[in-house]
Specification:
Chain A has 161 residues and is an all-alpha fold. Chain A has ten helices and no strands. Chain B is mainly beta and 311 residues long. The chains are: A mainly alpha (161), B mainly beta (311).
Chain lengths: 161, 311
Amino acid sequence: MFKYSLHAVVVAATVLFAQAALAQNSMSPPSAAMAASAPRDPSLKPVFDEFGGKPGLVNLMNDFMVNLMADARTRPYFVDSDREHIKVELVDQFCVILDGPCTYTGKDMEKVHRKLGINRAAFNALVEDLQVAMDKNNVPFRAQNKLLAKLAPMHSAVITR
Amino acid sequence: MKKHRYGRSAWFVAMALGGGLLSSTAVAAAAGGLGDSAAADSNTPSFSNKLLLTGGVSEVEGSAGGGLTPWAVIGGYGTADEVGGNAFYTHITLPDYHLDEVGAMVGLYNRVELSVAQQRFNTEQVGASLGLGQGFTFQQNIVGVKVRLFGDVVLDQDRWLPQVSFGVQHKKNNQAAVLSYIGARSDQGTDYYVNATKLFLSESLLVNATLRYTKANQIGILGFGGDRNNAYKPEFEGSVAYLLSRHWAIGAEYRQKPNNLGIAKESDWYDAFVAWAPNKYVSLTVAYADLGNIVIKNNQRGLYASVQVGF
């Protein structure tokens, strides 16, 4: 009996997943507000502290940019840009997501990335470079994942091919 | 004799595929090591850009997944623009039996996975006491195909939609006469499954559920269908994995099994595992597996160890 009710649940769940997928396809892309910056999440305040607050984020972004420039997969996207400005914007953006005392004044994520032709490989390369930088700055793995979970949905604004 | 040859040629194919993958892995690793010299322009061949461990490991039938059950992930480290592949060796030591297995898989553009595997299930002393001879071995070849239907196991963190795949595993056992004697209806069969895998990244937790339609007895090692039941039955399989770091994951699995043969009650399977991936080219999985009753022996609990190389 248990066995069959379990099956019913799985079948029902699969059907729901399929419907959700269809619904996703028929809906418009994420709103511009979403693309500008991930929303502030008050529950992540403890994570902000695990990142070492704003000074921690500044150090993190310095190491992150060094990694991005050393990585052949990501370097082409940053070599001709104002890297100091990008670091400042990233600190603010991460700070806002983690409910720190900051405001993000940067450009719309989708506009910034539209013409860069970033694929999944380059996106994942950036994630790896960020993970290495977070490890170097002794950010606990669980805290890293809480931030990455907020950044991951930006893929729709960043990956364009 | 013909069957024997079939088995042997399948073994050679698996070994050749494995060897080919090993050498291409070495090339991939070497090229990866060169790093900067390969500029990231779109003409440069690229590979291994999936995140670490997000291609799963090789499950007991050769598909990408956990240890006992396939996941919805496509094996190897290829993204939507890339091809990935790997080869594996698995050994399971039980009180009264042991299993050796080799296999290989190719993942195409994070959409399709093709796999081959060969299992050798050695009955040790049990073979002697059943009159089959000491060390009597059931050999099974498995060819698998998996297709990702929708969803992205890693990126979809703002919605509850999992990654969902559909897969087929065709299995052929080389001991038709013995299988027929114990009540199995066929020496070959095909499993069909749908699975959903979701990474809850903010919790560092991966969850998988698989629904499999199968007639296989002991995943096919004891044939397909039986005197007690010869119809396809839906069976549930589940995995939970907790990510300790980028390189380490621990978890547990459950696999429900049919009960088609009159000679012995077949148990559901469980395991608890640790997986370690020092880099994208190699991973090790060690598990404590509880495979319950297998023919005349109860409490078949033992060590599952698997090594995978790939890119």
